[in-house]
């Protein structure tokens, strides 16, 4: 019996909880590198990368080989019961790659939300404080604690009531919308004055480049001021690198470009090339502030995912994917600026490395977000065989997360299709 996207969508609607969204009404049959083929045999260029999970592309041969080899050995023991070397080796390699000239240790878990939750647990245990400061537009997960940190209620926390207390919201710098770096720092000082004393704040959590928030980039100057503020007040700085990590921004971790190091760094998404792996890396003394049994999980640091992560890091080194990320970023930014030059709806092109986006507004007015136009462009691009994603507080930002391994000709084709969509709709 042949399958169709339409028939599978009907089955999905009958069987899957409504709260699980789906951007494109497509069911995938197979994929390779930056190409996806649906159940009806149609090919698409993948500019979404599983939401920044596939920096090394779909089914990278090195990753698949490593997982197949591990599959012949064992698939699970629970690291807390019977340990295995790949877990330890992943931690060693992450310790070496996370910025900071200090001794580090790493914890492995399965998802980005888990990583952020555990970073907060570690910060609270290490400081003896409970409060956390996060930023407007930030996205840190959908578990209860991370929903408190995530700066967007709808749809992530709609109808769920109040989230856990003790989280305070500062403003993320956004020049396009009138939030200067001075104002962002002042908003933290206002928290200290109005809501919680510095001695009650365990950590400040920040994405070096906001993901769901619209690819807003924190400057090195701002990150330096944030680091100094934390140091003055005994507050830990947590860098959420779930989306920015594993080479997306042109360095393995975006904080390498910020001039300062975080105390704790979270990672996930592309670190294991499509297999579920995440973690927290930080100063050794902080990571050791929780005793045995206080961290971990049944599936945390799964052997198959660890094998995949080791292969991903090997691919980055062997194929020089950091240089490729920077080169891709230049090409993408150039292409988006060419589009912006022809269309007044583009209010801003921004990004870091190959993490790039453009914000659409009515006649370029930041006060009039053009979410409807973004939706139409995403749909028209899909009709043409290009998979895109939107993001931003008002869903008016188009983002590009194409695999870093995409062939040049396919990248050019994808950019040409995107330009066609603007010419037809914008």
Automatic annotation (TrEMBL):
Keywords: Aminotransferase, Pyridoxal phosphate, Transferase. Its cofactor is pyridoxal 5'-phosphate. One of its GO terms (biological process) is gamma-aminobutyric acid metabolic process. PROSITE patterns: AA_TRANSFER_CLASS_3. Belongs to the class-III pyridoxal-phosphate-dependent aminotransferase family. NCBIfam families: GABAtrnsam (TIGR00700), PRK08088.1 (NF005985). This is 4-aminobutyrate--2-oxoglutarate transaminase. It comes from Pseudomonas mangrovi. The lineage of its organism: Bacteria, Pseudomonadati, Pseudomonadota, Gammaproteobacteria, Pseudomonadales.
């Amino acid at each position: 019996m042949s399958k169709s996207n339409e028939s599978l969508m009907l089955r999905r609607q009958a069987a899957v909880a409504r709260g699980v969204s789906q951007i494109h009404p497509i069911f995938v049959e197979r994929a390779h590198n930056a190409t996806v083929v649906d159940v009806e045999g149609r090919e698409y260029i993948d500019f979404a990368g599983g939401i920044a999970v596939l920096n090394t592309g779909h089914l990278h041969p090195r990753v698949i080989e490593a997982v197949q080899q591990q599959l012949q050995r064992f698939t699970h023991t629970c690291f807390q019961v019977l340990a295995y070397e790949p877990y330890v080796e992943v931690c060693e390699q992450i310790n070496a790659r996370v910025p900071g000239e200090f001794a580090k240790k790493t914890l492995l878990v399965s998802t980005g939300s888990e990583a952020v939750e555990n970073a907060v647990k570690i910060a609270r245990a290490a400081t003896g404080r409970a409060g956390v400061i996060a930023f407007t537009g930030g996205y840190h997960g959908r578990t209860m604690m991370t929903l408190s940190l995530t700066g967007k209620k709808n749809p992530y926390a709609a109808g769920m009531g109040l989230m856990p207390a003790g989280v305070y919201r500062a403003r993320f710098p956004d020049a396009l919308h009138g939030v200067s770096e001075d104002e962002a720092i002042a908003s933290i000082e206002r928290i200290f004055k109005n809501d919680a004393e510095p001695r009650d704040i365990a950590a400040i959590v920040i994405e070096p480049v906001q993901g769901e928030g619209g690819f807003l980039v924190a400057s090195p100057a701002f990150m330096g001021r944030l680091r100094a503020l934390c140091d003055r007040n005994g507050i830990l700085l947590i860098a959420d690198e779930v989306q920015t990590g594993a080479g997306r921004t042109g360095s393995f971790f975006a904080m390498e470009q910020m001039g300062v190091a975080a105390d704790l760094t979270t990672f996930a998404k592309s670190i294991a090339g499509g297999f579920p792996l995440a973690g927290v890396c930080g100063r050794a003394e902080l990571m050791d502030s929780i005793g045995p049994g206080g961290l971990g999980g049944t599936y945390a640091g799964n052997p198959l995912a660890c094998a995949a992560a080791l292969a991903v890091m090997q691919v980055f080194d062997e194929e020089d994917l950091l240089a490729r990320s920077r080169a891709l970023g230049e090409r993408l930014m150039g292409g988006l600026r060419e589009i912006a030059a022809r269309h007044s709806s583009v209010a801003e092109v921004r990004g870091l490395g190959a993490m790039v986006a453009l914000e659409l507004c009515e006649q370029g007015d930041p006060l009039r977000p053009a979410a409807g136009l973004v939706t139409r462009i995403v749909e028209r691009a899909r009709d043409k065989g290009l998979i895109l994603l939107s993001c931003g507080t008002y869903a008016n930002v188009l983002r590009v997360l194409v695999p870093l391994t995409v062939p040049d000709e396919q990248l050019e084709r994808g950019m040409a299709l995107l330009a066609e969509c603007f010419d037809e709709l914008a």
